[in-house]
């Protein structure tokens, strides 16, 4: 129903943000990652991607600072036994990029660190999403196979390794890394590379 909301951040608490859109305050449940992105932005214009959850006993709007987090949330609630509350808990301890790596590498323990998520549920997340984890970076992507060289050395090698774990080929990785500043930290480089793959 709502893809994103853009307006003034009126209220921000550890679990909730209220965005004022032309005089209407929309309450959104948020993760710790989104809370971090909103830090210090009260009374300024922000944009949050959303998911509208409708149940028999409640309607709730969830907000995310990035499309990647919104996609990750949607995938998580598709897993048997994972509801919106558990999905937000997982995204409060893992960024979408780290969640991708955890699922791809079978690291259920990292997912089980989320509040209210047990070992069996975390294992189910890995099992059900392992073949879909590429969707956290925008789904299937195909590029000309021999067009690019993959950058190497230092942090760039770490980024390449992380994207390889996610199932991307060398040409896809090289394409994703075009225009990414090698001076950024590794996690930020991975985030930007995944964003390039979504285009």
Describe the structure.
The chain has helices at residues 32-38, 67-77, 84-93, 96-105, 108-111, 119-129, 154-165, 170-177, 186-198, and strands at 4-12, 16-21, 24-29, 45-54, 59-64. The chain contains 9 helices and 5 strands, in the order E-E-E-H-E-E-H-H-H-H-H-H-H-H. 43% of the residues lie in helices and 19% in strands. It is globular. A hairpin with a 3-residue loop joins strand 1 and strand 2. By secondary structure, the chain is α+β, with helices and mostly antiparallel strands. Residues 137-152 have low confidence and may be disordered. Helix 2 crosses helix 3, helix 7 (154-165) packs across helix 9 (186-198) and helix 8 packs across helix 9. A 5-stranded antiparallel sheet has the order 3-2-1-4-5, with helices on both faces.
